[in-house]
């Protein structure tokens, strides 16, 4: 019995699900019949017939596009990493849109640097969330991606990615470990994380040294994209120092939360130190 749906994409979705044992050939044919009579897409017809679930379709899409992603409840990384668990959700779609914008700028030569600091004025605005999920979507495209947690005061990336936090940026900058402290994220081949490491007594001083810029230069050839999570700019100067080394920053603005005058002040400081503010992410949650 051969399955011959309308389009290549649809054929592979059916075939992928059959291969994975999630769909029988008989049910696939039933889906194709409905698909033809009602001109639906394969997935839509399958859901309408109750033969497929949204997560089956997501699974097939992920396979089709060769996306590294994790099944729900896998627990390998935090549930906050929506790009790892729900790569085709609307939220992640907007992160991919942001990725496209950033890549476009890079290819048009507007941003020569690979490094991008993710900044915002206040706490709890979603910098860590955006940095982590954006790093995942970059890596899913096969870009060699490094996420650096430069929030040495409230570090979160090692928890989000369930990595060990004994060594990291703080120990590298203090000269107590080398770039070997960069950890690969299991399941995500093109993604590496340099976690923050133990809280140092002097975060600002560490980040302000030549060492951070030097580290970025050392890592430059190994990665296509380097994203940097930072502390709030209203509380500390750390993020400004980091952004100055990176050369570029993207601003996270949390809807109905982030104070616009704080964003303005932040942008002024960035401009004064020659940091290119490449875009703003409106984070609504
Ligand atoms: N777009 C979003 N959707 C859902 N939850 C979000 C979103 N952005 C942030 N959060 C959640 O809000 C909390 C604070 O975000 P976080 O990234 O840690 O803030 P920041 O790093 O700016 O202090 C976290 O629990 C995070 O998962
Ligand atoms: Mg944070």
Describe this protein's structure.
The chain is of the alpha/beta class and 285 residues long. It folds into 2 domains: 57 residues; 202 residues, P-loop containing nucleotide triphosphate hydrolases (Rossmann fold). It has 13 helices and 7 strands. It has a 7-stranded mixed sheet, sandwiched between helices. A hairpin with a 6-residue loop joins β3 and β4. α1 crosses α4 and α2 packs across α3. The protein binds adenosine-5'-diphosphate and magnesium ion. Adenosine-5'-diphosphate binds next to α7. The site of adenosine-5'-diphosphate has 12 residues, from α7.
Fraction in helix: 40-55%
How much of the polypeptide forms β-strand, as a percent range? Answer: 5-15%
Question: What's the β-strand tally?
Answer: 7
CATH class category of the largest domain: Alpha Beta
Identify the CATH homologous superfamily of the largest domain. P-loop containing nucleotide triphosphate hydrolases
H and E string: HHHHHHEHEHHEEHHEHEHE
CATH topology of the largest domain: Rossmann fold
Strand order of the largest sheet: 3-4-2-5-1-6-7
What compounds are bound to the protein? Answer: adenosine-5'-diphosphate, magnesium ion
Uncertain segments = 1-8
Largest sheet: number of strands, sense, barrel closure: 7 strands, mixed
Return Rg in Å: 22 Å
The rounded distance between the terminal residues' Cα atoms is 48 Å
Alpha-beta classification: alpha/beta
Overall mean confidence score, pLDDT: 89
> What is the number of helical segments per DSSP (H or I, 4+ residues)?
13
- At CATH's second level, what is the architecture of the largest domain? 3-Layer(aba) Sandwich
Form type: elongated
Count up the domains. Answer: 2
């Amino acid at each position: 019995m051969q399955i011959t749906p309308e389009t290549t994409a649809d054929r592979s979705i059916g075939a992928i699900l059959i291969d994975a044992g999630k769909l029988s050939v008989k049910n696939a044919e039933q889906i194709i019949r409905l698909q033809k009579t009602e001109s639906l897409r394969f997935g839509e017809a399958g859901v309408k017939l109750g033969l497929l679930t949204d997560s089956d379709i997501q699974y097939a899409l992920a396979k089709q596009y060769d996306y590294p992603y994790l099944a729900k409840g896998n627990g390998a990384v935090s549930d906050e990493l929506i790009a790892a668990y729900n790569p085709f959700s609307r939220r992640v779609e907007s992160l991919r849109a942001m990725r496209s914008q950033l890549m476009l700028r890079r290819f048009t030569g507007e941003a020569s640097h690979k490094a991008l600091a993710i900044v915002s004025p206040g706490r709890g605005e979603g910098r860590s969330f955006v940095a982590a999920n954006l790093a995942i979507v970059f890596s899913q495209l096969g870009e060699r991606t490094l996420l650096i947690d430069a929030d040495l005061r409230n570090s979160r990336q090692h928890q989000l990615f369930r990595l060990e936090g004994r060594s990291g940026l703080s120990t590298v900058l203090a000269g107590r470990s080398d770039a070997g402290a960069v950890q690969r994220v299991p399941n995500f081949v093109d993604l590496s994380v340099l976690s923050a490491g133990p809280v140092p007594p002097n975060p600002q001083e560490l980040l302000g040294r030549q060492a951070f810029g030097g580290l970025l230069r050392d890592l430059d050839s190994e990665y296509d994209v380097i994203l940097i999570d930072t502390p709030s700019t209203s509380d500390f100067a750390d993020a400004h120092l980091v952004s100055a080394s990176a050369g570029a920053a993207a601003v996270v603005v949390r809807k109905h939360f982030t104070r616009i005058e704080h964003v303005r002040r932040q942008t002024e400081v960035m401009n004064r130190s020659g940091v290119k503010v490449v875009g703003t992410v409106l984070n609504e949650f």
